[in-house]
């Protein structure tokens, strides 16, 4: 068997402690990155909800506009029909 190299053991112990500290630092960075990811995901969900809500409001406004236009058209047709019918009765 070879001789025990105390200096080498101390160097390895120092390197192990250094690596352990680096692992701890990386775990903290990963934890922070996960928190940031979760916050970004929540903001994205809110943005998607808002977009969908705006789309629905836009659709409802368009449907209301179309209903108002249809009602105007019906009133105009009724007015024209009444005029034509009234004019036809006067001429008879």
Structure, explained:
- The chain has 92 residues and is mostly helical.
- The chain is built from one helix and no strands.
The helix content, as a percent range, equals over 70%
Number of strands: 0
Largest sheet: none
Alpha-carbon Rg, integer: 39 Å
Shape: rod-shaped
Task: Give the DSSP E fraction (strand runs of 2 or more residues).
Answer: under 5%
What is the string of SSEs from the N terminus onward?
H
Q: Which SSEs are present, and which pair or pack?
A:
Elements lengths: L5 H86 L1
List descriptors:
mainly alpha; 93% helix; single chain; 92 residues
Concise account of the structure shown:
By secondary structure, this protein is mostly helical. It has 1 helix and no strands.
């Amino acid at each position: 068997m070879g001789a025990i190299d105390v200096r080498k053991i101390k160097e390895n112990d120092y390197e192990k402690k250094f690596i352990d500290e680096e692992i701890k630092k990386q775990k903290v960075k990963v934890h922070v990155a996960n928190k940031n990811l979760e916050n970004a995901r929540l903001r994205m969900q809110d943005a998607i909800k808002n977009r969908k809500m705006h789309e629905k409001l836009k659709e409802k406004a368009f449907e209301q506009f179309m209903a108002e236009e249809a009602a105007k058209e019906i009133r105009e047709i009724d007015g024209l029909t009444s005029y034509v019918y009234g004019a036809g009765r006067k001429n008879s």
